[in-house]
Design brief:
Largest sheet: 7 strands, mixed
Structural class: alpha/beta
Number of helices: 10
Oligomer: single chain
Number of strands: 11
Strand content: 15-25%
Distance between the termini: 47 Å
Length: 343
Amino acid sequence: MNITGRYLTNTIHLYPLKFSMIDISTNFIYKKNKLNHDVIEYIEDNTSNKIEVQKTVKSGIKLLEAQSICPAWAFYEFRLGAKQIEDEDEENLTTRLRGNLFHKTLEEFWKEYKSSSLLSALEEKELSKKIQEIVHKNITIEKKNYPKILSVFFNIEEMRLISYLEKWIHHELKRGDFKVKETEKNISIQLGCLNFNIKIDRIDEVNQNNIVIDYKSGTTKTLNEWFLNTYGELQMPFYALFASNKPMDGIAIGVINAAKPQWIGIGRDKDLLPGIKDFTATQYRSWDDLIDFWKCRIDNAVKSYESGNAAVIFTREKDMAYCQVKSILRLPERILQFERTKQ
């Protein structure tokens, strides 16, 4: 400390950083700073501790999709549990509640009519009455569960649901022979140190082939998303591998909406469902080759998550539309860094 006239000043002593003092056993990656490389070090911290004990993961398939799209997304949202703060809407029908009503109604319907022969034996009036009965019962239950939601909202949803499902069941009647083997099937799967608990909407048998069906009442991604090498959708490929003790023969999304009910999917044989494609629509020589590709993608995502990979790396920002931790990832800054490295 020096005293100069009336001013009290501190003399700051700077000491060079000794590399030997750095614990090189940590997961940090040290890089020289170009501006002052003798003193200042830049730390790129993009790796967490490895997962080495058995762990049950929630939203398991979403976790794997996030890991393949951007590892940091999976780390913050699924490993650390970071979420956006959202006010629970107790006075309106949420998207989740509407979806639950769809799934519950279809589950009850197919538990009673387990084949195309039983379905086609129904007369038009009987079919309409049965759908109305199931929908009304489920709406009545939810009215009691959500007393703050006005009855008029539930009544509107009841009419909408009946209209959608009547059109959907008529769409199913255009299929050939089929049997409904499973509805809302719960499955537990262990991959590495990760335990997954998933629920599958439906499994049908068509000409001794098994096909997984998932319902969507809103917009859905294109079929091409299932064939991307390192990112893209993993839900349906996951079902193809693990819905049963052996891989499925096909996977399909039943798009249930008033405008255009349709099937989107792929299988060993395109005749499994009207409108789906077979493996010849891809670059793979057989259905088994496509199954192997999906298994490789899922295994890579599991290994990446278990290893602690938490890097902010991504290919398409649009794939992160449902990411709840974008503010932590600082995407605009990362995009700028990518652009500078290309120069």
